Amino acid sequence: MLRWIGLLLIAFLLILQWKLWVGADGIREVHALRASVAAQREENDQLTRRNQALEADVKDLKHNGQAVESRARSELGLIKPGETFYQVVEPASASSSDAH
């Protein structure tokens, strides 16, 4: 009788170990979830740094007229009255003219 109980307990222990290591909520899934959490934290850190840079840019634009003018000149092509605009066009390279 004790032999059967011992075998039954060993079988039960093996089943529990199988579930722990290979089962749906086992060690593998825990490691996968930890890796997923680490990746998400890294992405959150990158987005936080990006948001901080954008926030600094917004503050600079709100409180610094030169920053607004500089951005308008570079992105919108602002030219003040009395200024002359010069556009420098570089000659096409020899390899691109041969292709046409």
From TrEMBL:
It is found in: Cell inner membrane. Transmembrane segments: none annotated. GO terms for biological process: FtsZ-dependent cytokinesis. It is a single-pass type II membrane protein. Keywords: Cell cycle, Cell division, Cell inner membrane, Cell membrane, Coiled coil, Membrane, Transmembrane, Transmembrane helix. Pfam families: DivIC (PF04977). Residues 23-100 are periplasmic. It comes from the Bacteria. Its main location: membrane. Residues 30-71 form a coiled coil. InterPro entries: Cell_div_FtsB, FtsL/DivIC. GO terms for cellular component: cell division site; cell septum; plasma membrane. Residues 1-4 are cytoplasmic. Belongs to the FtsB family. Essential cell division protein. May link together the upstream cell division proteins, which are predominantly cytoplasmic, with the downstream cell division proteins, which are predominantly periplasmic. Part of a complex composed of FtsB, FtsL and FtsQ. NCBIfam families: PRK00888.1. This is Cell division protein FtsB. It comes from Oleiagrimonas citrea.
